[in-house]
Amino acid sequence: MVAGNIKQLLIDLDKLEQKVSELEELKRKLNNSVEKQIILQSNLISALLSILVMYIYSSQSSDFFTRDVSNMSVFSTFFQMFIIAFMAWGIGLILREILIYSWSKDYLPFGQKFIYMSKLPKYQSINNKIASEIDIILDKESFDKSPLPRKYLNQRTLKYLINIIESNQLNSVEEALLFLDLETKNQKARAYLVTREDLVTQAQKMAHPNFKSDTDNRYHL
Fold first, then answer.
1. Quick one: which of 69, 80, 131, 191 could link to 64 by a disulfide (CB 3.0–4.6 Å)?
2. What are the protein's UniProt keywords (predicted)?
């Protein structure tokens, strides 16, 4: 019976982990979309500005636009075209990096925050749906009445407990908790069995960004 309860908790924990992964993937897609938009803007504007600068430079400083091209040698024509193209490429590359940095830091209008807010509604509805599914999972009895502290709510620790209970080394959850408390006094065992942040707290933080965690409490707040 004890092992069965922990197995159910493990199943629900696995579902919770999947939802957390979905939220992380959604956040990654949103961030990637913002970055791609910044790069696209930078490529377009830097290309247009470099062409404009080179046109102004060429029309005022280069012989290519100020005398009859037919009177120029093939080498001279090719050389001036090469110089103009090379300068355009160099200016475009520098402008691109400046624009990417400036928009990423919101030093220019229509920067990262603007792009993020413009794209957010598309992802927010999906985020809300996953957050609701997380709440449903956390409201299950396996979490609500779990005697295990949050710090032990991870798949590695639960599987470890199930193996110990099924091998008849422990007969109750209370014994399991005492055993875990003793085990985790060892630094290596603690690093293996106790994660830096338990999955329940992580899920609540991601589903509800204003959530304040208390890792010493059980799930039932």
1. 80
2. Coiled coil, Membrane, Transmembrane, Transmembrane helix
Find all residues with CB under 8 Å of 216, minimum gap 6, and list them.
149, 150
How far apart are the C-alpha atoms of 197 and 176, rounded to whole Å?
A: 21
Please count the other Cβ atoms lying within 10 Å of the Cβ belonging to residue 14: 12
Angle (nearest 5°) at CA 72 between 66 and 76: 100
Comparing CA positions, the residue from 32, 220, 24, 195 lying closest to residue 116 is: 32
In this predicted structure, the answer to whether residue 190 has a pLDDT above a threshold of 80 is yes
Q: Which residues contact 62 (CB under 8 A, 6 or more apart)?
A: 80, 84
10 and 159 in contact (C-beta within 8 Å)? yes
Q: What is the pLDDT of residues 92-140, one digit of tens each?
A: 899 999 999 999 999 999 999 999 999 999 899 999 999 999 999 988 8
- Rounded-to-integer distance, Cα 126 and Cα 135, Å: 14
Positions of E strands within the chain: none
**Global pTM exceeds 0.85:** no
Task: Provide the residue type at 8 as one letter.
Answer: Q
Beta strands in 51-197 (DSSP E): none
| DSSP code at position 67 | S
* Burial track 116-128 (b if 16+ CB lie within 10 A, e otherwise): beebeeeeeeebe
